[in-house]
Specification:
The chain is an alpha+beta fold and 64 residues long. The chain has one domain (5-62): N-terminal domain of TfIIb. Helix content is 19%, strand content 27%. The chain has two helices and five strands. The chain has helices at residues 5-10, 57-62; strands spanning 20-22, 28-31, 36-41, 44-45, 53-54. Strands 1, 2, 3, 4 and 5 form a five-stranded antiparallel beta sheet that branches.
């Protein structure tokens, strides 16, 4: 079961309050502003700042 689009519309980054988007592989949610990546475990987004990692744009484009 994937994260519903209705849920994605109301979720926001707890650190900066910006919109989050589902990563293409469905494994995490990424903040569009501060680039924090929140994991999705058992189809549940873990929206805790302590659990987030910060994804570098350069690293994201070179890994594909």
């Amino acid at each position: 079961m994937a994260i519903s689009s209705d849920l994605l519309e109301i979720l926001a980054c707890p650190a900066c309050k910006a919109k989050v988007e589902l990563k293409p592989d469905g494994s995490a949610l990424k903040c569009v502003q501060c680039k924090r990546v929140y994991p999705v475990r058992d189809d549940i987004p873990v929206m805790l700042v302590d659990e987030a990692t910060i994804e570098d744009e350069a690293a994201a484009t070179t890994t594909t």
